[in-house]
Description:
Elements: H1 2-20, H2 28-43, H3 49-73, H4 88-104, H5 108-122, E1 126-131, E2 135-140, H6 141-179, H7 182-230, H8 234-240, H9 248-288, E3 294-295, E4 298-299, H10 306-326, H11 329-352, H12 354-359, H13 363-415, H14 421-438, H15 440-443, H16 445-469, E5 477-480, E6 485-493, E7 499-508, E8 513-517, H17 524-532, E9 538-544, E10 550-553, E11 562-563, H18 564-569, H19 579-588, E12 601-602, H20 604-607, H21 610-624, E13 628-632, H22 640-653, E14 658-662, E15 674-680, E16 686-691, H23 694-698
Parallel strand pairs: 5-9, 7-16, 8-14, 8-15, 10-13, 13-14
Antiparallel strand pairs: 1-2, 3-4, 6-7, 6-9, 11-12, 15-16
Amino acid sequence: MLPIALAAGSAGLALAVARIVGWVDLPPYVFILTLVAAAVAWLSRPTSTLIRAIIGFLVVWHLVSLAILLANEAGLISEALGPYLPTRASILLSVIFALGVYGLSFVGTIRQITNLADPFFETRDVGTIELPFGIAFRLQERYIAHALLYLLLVINIAQVLATVLLNQWNNRFYTALQQRAEATFWVELQYFTIVAFLWVILAVYELYLTQFTQMRWRRWMTAKLTGHWLDDGGHYRMRLQGSQADNPDQRIAEDVRLFTDNTLGLMIRFFSAILSLYAFVLILWGLSASFKYNVLGIDLESIPGYLVYAALFVAIFGTVCAHLIGRKLIGINFLRQRYEADFRYALVRVRENDEQIALLKGENAEAQGLTRRFGNVVSNWFDYMKYTKRLTWFTTFVNQASVIFPFILLAPAYFSGAVQLGALTQTAGAFGRVESALLIFTNLYASLADYKSVIDRLTGFEKSADGARAKPATAIDTVRDGDRLQLANLAVTLPDGQQLVSAPDLTVNAGERVLVTGPSGSGKSTLFRAIAGIWPHGSGTVVSPAGADIMLLPQRPYFPVATLRDAVTYPAERGAYTDAAIVEALEAMNLAALATRLDEEAAWHQILSGGEQQRLALARALLCKPDWLFLDEATAAIDETGEAALYKALCDRLPNSTIVSIGHRSTLVNFHDRRIHLVKDATGLHVAGDAPLMALAKA
C-alpha cells in the first residue's frame, strides 16, 4: 500500500501546484480528494490484507479516472468518447467508497471475515497455475489469489460499463420505436447485439473464475484448518476440554465450503452493486433534471437529483425493515448446521456399532435417540421457515413494488409530453439499478444471516483449536533428554482439576520390561497419555529418551478405512515396508489368514473381532520396531494362552525395545522384570511406585 499511497499523495500535490500556477483549471476539491485517497491508502496499512487489497484497487481506480479526466479536459481524447469517460463526480465517489471500506474494517463482523480470509491472501505457499496449450508456472499462492481477485473486479467493472451502455441504448431504441424510425431501429439492434454478446462473455468468465478461485481457496483453507486441528494432538485436546467447536468434521468439510463460496460471491456482488450505484447514480442524477413537473405543489426540478433520493429512501426503509424482521435467522442458522451435524454423527455411530446394538437389542433405544436428534432438526427448520416466510413476504413485496414505483413517479412527466418513451424507460432502468444496488442488504438478508452463522462457527473452531494447542499454565512439562524415562513430581489431573494419579519419582531404564498395575479407574491409562505427551492436565515433569521412537498401543486400536496393507502400516507412508515384512508380521501375530487380503480396502474395525484388531495392532509394532513400546491393555481381548504367545513373539522380535505394559493378569509377570503399582493414599489419590513383581502372581 505504501507505493499506492505515495503515488496518490504525489498526484494530489502535483495537481495543487498545477492549479496554483494555472496549468490546469480544476476545482480545489479534486486535488483534495486525491490527497484524501492517499491518506486512506496510508491509514489502511495496519488493517487486514483483504481490506488493503480492495482499498488499493479503489485508489488506483481513482488515479486512473483522474488521469483520464485530465486527458479529456486537455483535448487528448475524442469527443465521441465523452459520454463513456469518468467525470468529476466519479472521482468523488471512488474516494467515498475507499473511505467506506476503510470504515468497515473496524466492524466486528468484517474483522471476523478478514481474520479468516487474510491467511489465504498472505500465504507464501507455492501454487501452480495451468494455462491452455500446456503452459504452467509456479507462483506464491498469495500472488495468484490477488491476481484472481483483481481480475474478477475488473470483469465486474466491464460488466457494469456494458450495463450502462445498454441503459443508454434503451433510450435510443425505444425512442426510435416511438418515432417509427426504422433505420435507427436496425442500427440500434446491431449495437445491442455486440454489447450483449460481450456481456455474455464477461458473465461466463466471471462465473468460471469465481468457481476456480473458490476451489483454490477452499483447498488451501481445508489443508490449513485440517493441519491446525490435527497438529500436536490438538484434535484430542479439543475433545478433552469440552470445546465449543462441535462437529469439527462439519466445520472443515461444510463450513469452509460455505465460507469460501459466500465470501467471494458476496464480495463480488457487493462490489458489483457499488459499481452499479457508482454508474447509475450519475445517470439518474442527470436524468432527474429532464423531468419537470409538480407533485403536491412541489416543483421537483428545484430538488437536484430527487430520483436518487427517492431510491435511497426506499432502500433505507427496506433494509431497516428486513433487519428487524429477519435478524433472528442468524441464531437459527447457527443451530441448524449444528443439529444437522449432530444427527449425521448419530447415524454414523449406529452404523459403526451395529453389531453391539444388535447384540444388546438396542434398536428401539437408538431409534428414540435418532428421533430426538432429528426432532431438533425439524423444530429448528420450522423456526427457519417461519422467519424466512416473514422476510420473503416483505422482500418480495418491496421488489415487486420497486418495478412499478419509478413509472408511477415519472408518469406525469411522460403523459404531459415532457419526455419521450425512451427517456422514460432509461430513467426507470437507471432507477431500478440504483434501487437494486441499495436494496442488496434487503434481498440478501437470509443469505447474510446464514453466512454470519458460518463465520461464527469457523471463528469458534479456530479459537477452540488455538486454545487446545496453547500450553496451559499447569501443563505437564515434557522434555526429551538422556536415554531413560523419568517422572518427577508428576501429578495428573482431570480436566476439571481433580487430582487423579501421582508419580513423585519414577525411572524406567532402556531395555526394561515393566508391568503397570492398579485398580480399575486408578488412572493407569491417563498416566500413559501424560507420558506420551498428549494429556495436558496436571503438573510436574516427564523426561523421555532423546531421539527415541516411542509407540503407544491402546486397548481399542485405530485403523483407517483403507487397504489392509495401509491399515497395518499406519501411520507410515505407503511403501515403507515390503509385503514380505508385512506378511511375516501378520503370521507372527497369528493372522496368517489375512496375508492374502493386503489389497482389500475395508472398514477393518468393523470386520475384525476385538482380538483380531489387537493382534493387527501388535503386528504394526513388529513392523515399526519402536525403541519404547507402551501397551495399554493391548491384549485384553485375547485369552491367556494367546496373550502369552503374543508377548513371547514381541520379546523375541523386539529384543532391544523397552516394553511398558498395563495389565491385570498374573500371567504377565512371566514377560516383565519389574512392576509399578498404583496405590490409593489417605487422601484418595493413587500414587505410582515400585512393587514386588511376584506378588501379582501369588495374588
